[in-house]
């Protein structure tokens, strides 16, 4: 894995078949390695400071021992061994899948990767790994698994929701504008032209082939630039900052507005604030300290697109998003229907029973939710 620290372009040449094989994936191991590097102050991303502060407090209470892993990924070299983040085999890869792929790295690949990073001046940990690559990878995998369990797993459902939302958005970009629109929106440093993907700011001017296509990995705990893994044991991977990652650590931390609290009550207003970042019903229930059944998700209300949008199903979880009208103040996002005996729903007969309608917090907040059919 190489860091983007130069001023010349890297060009990745993609044939038609390689472009057709390009895919998105999610890697818990990638988040773990990036998080550790953030803690090591390697290209620290400001938007991750809340997570960094939490992790520092967690480690101060119970330190994490990583004598075989830390020296290989946190140092002053411009790159680090590529076998730490193998290309995921599928979109639903787990941490165990990632670690198993890493342990399958051959001895020759381990030695070649370490030589590319450290040259002939190997640190003691790298020299030991060169001598016993199989046993060394097993030890590193165990250290990384503990790091994931301690630092990433407590937040994984929210991180996964952001990654799933990013991939859903990118897939629509690809369908609407093909590869040019996808890569232009992926990161400002990426450009697509005539079957070639160009990344500005590389260390040396070169052209490479992406055999088997690219694997595009959105990352939350990442530096602000794109990382490309060239000398890969699997496929070439492009790791980029996930869209919407900036709201992940702040969603739900700010107090809801006074008007939302007066109209909705504090628990529902807090849920509205929590949805500044994609979240599942379980996440919302945890944020609001209520049972899952206490989070309003009626089937008919979920279809009301102006209020709340549900992402494509990601395994068993369906992340909710706050749409633009919801962000502008539509309270129907979390509480789609407010029962009021003095507000009549258009087209419905008047009765003593509370009618169902949508209420907006402020004028000009976008279209109100339609009435219940």
Q: Numbering strands along the chain, what is their spatial order in the largest sheet?
A: 3-4-1-5
Instruction: Classify the secondary structure makeup into a structural class.
Output: alpha/beta
Q: Report the radius of gyration as a whole number of Å.
A: 24 Å
What oligomeric arrangement do these chains adopt?
single chain
Compute the number of helices: 13
What is the CA–CA distance across the termini? 54 Å
Topology as a string of helices (H) and strands (E): EHEHHHHHHHHEEEEEEHHHEEHEE
Number of strands: 12
Provide the low-confidence segments as ranges. Answer: 1-6, 297-316, 327-373
How helix-rich are the residues, as a percent range? 25-40%
Main sheet summary: 4 strands, mixed
Strand content: 5-15%
Mean pLDDT: 74
What sort of overall outline do the alpha carbons produce when their principal axes are compared?
globular
Task: Draw up the topology in text.
Elements: E1 8-13, H1 16-21, E2 23-24, H2 28-39, H3 49-61, H4 70-73, H5 95-103, H6 107-118, H7 124-131, H8 133-152, H9 156-186, E3 190-193, E4 196-202, E5 206-209, E6 214-219, E7 227-229, E8 236-241, H10 258-264, H11 266-274, H12 281-288, E9 308-310, E10 320-322, H13 324-328, E11 338-340, E12 355-357
Parallel strand pairs: 1-5, 2-6, 6-8
Antiparallel strand pairs: 1-4, 3-4, 7-8, 9-10, 11-12
